[in-house]
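Late entry, evening session. Most of the bench is empty. Finally got around to the prediction I had been postponing all week. Sequence below, unchanged from the version circulated by S.P.
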Amino acid sequence: MTRLADLPWPEAERAAGGPFLALLPVGSTEAHGPHLPLSTDTLLAEGMADAAAALLRARGRRVLVLPTFPYGVTECAGEFFGTLSVSARTVESLVTDVAASLRARGCAKLGLVNAHLEPANRHALRAAAQAATAAGLPTVLPDVVRRVYAERLGAEFRSGACHAGDFEGSLVLALRPELVREGVRVALPENPTSLGAALAAGKQKFKEAGGPQAYFGAPAVASAETGRALLRELATIVADEMEGPG
């Protein structure tokens, strides 16, 4: 992997080697049940970006993975300790400022690799991508919630009951298993309530949406094997969008 922040500047300049692609992982600091870390979305964004960068490099592209932004618009889990939120304005400003700096350094395209799917956060990132593109740096947001992508990410993801359940739990088990509280995870009953449907119906917080412990889905059935398969799909989605038009 080539993470920009891990390199001295001369090595970073050589790794870029002229016009390059950049991936910005975007996560959150948010409650993910009693079994997954607050950094879950951040870990997932980093894992997706690293895996997508590896695919792009195999296709002959020069790509750098930027330092991760570990905050987002994170109001839905605000009832739970440890959840930290920033404003949509902050998210948009961060992305557009970083994009301007990257453009000055010869970046050809920026990808926002987002694992925090709260609607307000996705909206802020879409606005930021549009603004950065209008300012001169093509910027894409591979939005995995789109139906064409969701169909590839499993039944739980498609149901909307996928916060800290099988989907995210499997990814964390594949990426950082030592951070999962296994004894807690395997004892949790399934919560089939669709967070996506609840938010679409106007619910604003996890508890009123039907998630009293900040999880939706089936944590107990998660597995590292499933997580590795999901990571391959997610990385392919990101890499393909980075090579698409724009």
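Two things to note before I forget:
The two ends are 25 Å apart (CA to CA).
The longest strand covers residues 107-114.
Will write this up properly tomorrow.
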